[in-house]
Amino acid sequence: MKKPIIGITSAYEKERELKNYHRTTVCIDYAKSIAEAGGIPLVIPTLENREDIRAQLEMLDGLLLSGGEDINPQYYNEDFMEGMGLVSPERDKNEWTILEEFLPTGKPILGVCRGMQLLNIFYGGSLYQDMKHISGDLLKHRQDFLPELKVHRVKLEEDSILGRLFGEVVLTNSFHHQAIDRLGEDLKVIGRTSDDIIEAIEGKRKEFLLGVQWHPEMMSARGNKEMLRIFKEFVESSK
Q1: How far, in Å, CA of 78 to CA of 198, rounded?
Q2: Is-above-0.70 flag for pTM?
Q3: How far is the C-alpha of 195 from the C-alpha of 179, rounded, in Å?
């Protein structure tokens, strides 16, 4: 049986220290996880021409929206607030076009960290631009050690993709300073931490549309077979 081809979005980096070199970059953990799950990973560079982007997407059986820089808050009609990180206008525009073209196909989509946040914004939702704008006591959501280390629990909805894979609770790593504020239309929350931060969403329709706030690829690429279940489910849905 032919292995499904999974496109992985990438960052558009400008290295001023290296004579203004521009680069397409993405963590290798995504590709490793897709390959181990039975798919063929294909990195998607940042382009502007819609016809070229459409031609790229026609080759794909599934789409993985990878993590990375903050998304320009103007995409959810907000001004920049204290705590916003770096943004990439080129990447924002490219991935917005990718979603406009790919979502109508009904093919599976997995969003990781920034990828989940992008899905939420695309569906009309918004973000807390920095978690310091959230009142109350919060867990540590931006660990600075051992990417595979489990640092908090995510309580899952039973009737959901992740609920069926993991049960009531899953232990995850955490590398984010932003979080979903207003939930987008046609999405539902399927996972939260004990401080009520949204950690997982899925689409209300029958198509595979899943977003996770943590980084399962960092865990699975370092031997966590439990976290590999997410990628196996995603790849299987892409066949």
Answers
A1: 20
A2: yes
A3: 12
